Amino acid sequence: MSISTVLFSRRNPVLFLKTPYRLITSQAQAQAQAQPSIKPLHVLFTEAVGHSQKTTTSDTDEEQTESSETATELKKNLKQLEQDIKTLKEKTPGIPKRTSLFAAFTNKKPPSKPKDSVVVKELSPDMKMFAQHLFEKGYFKDANFSQSKKKFDLDWFTSFFAVGYIKFAAQRFARDNQEIAKWLSGSALKQVATFGCSDTNKSAVFPAKRLRKFFEVPENTVCCKCTLQQTCKFMNQSVWNVNTNSLELVTVMKVITSYGLESVHPQLVVPEVVKKSVSQLLKEIVKLSPTT
pTM higher than 0.85 for the full model? Predict the structure, then answer.
């Protein structure tokens, strides 16, 4: 009979009283040691996490080792495959070259594309005269196509780059000769300003707007008649910080050289009255240019 049964037995109160204290204590200790110890929950959790980390670390090390070995083996196989292909090509003559679908189905070579799809128009007589004047004034000395050349040559302007260089040279000339602007024909300038812009890009639109601002031409009266209004992002927009008391020759050059070189939007039709005004302005600029 266990001590608990003896202690709480109602049938044997005398036995409980006669049992020595030392015997009760020893039996209680024995029962406590026989039962499994119960650990707190946080202790069990800590032990479980530690065991998981050890297991994960060992598994990761094994996976990395296997991955490294697999990558090394794959590299060896790829190198061997490349070497085999190279050897096969050397031993097998007449391997057909890569061909296009057009050639495969038609047995013909594909049509060659033109190297330069930009058509360079011949300079007008006025622009030839003006370009030669810029050359004589030294504004083509930095151009690659005219370096170390002492004579003006129209064959330079068969490339798109050379034609574009005329605009650059004209703007440099305008910065050096601003005083010419006040002697130009106002009616010719206003005729060009009232017509509109040569193109819809920013470099063509804003100089034309500044020219209209100087002559106080309302934007809506020009934009509402323009054939490019459907594709223009700057329609009816005004420009700021424009000095209406003085006209910048650089602005004039940007506008009239676009018309003079016919570098305008394909859908834009320039009337003859505008062309005549541009021709008149180019001749005036050359005539008013300093002789020294």
Answer: no
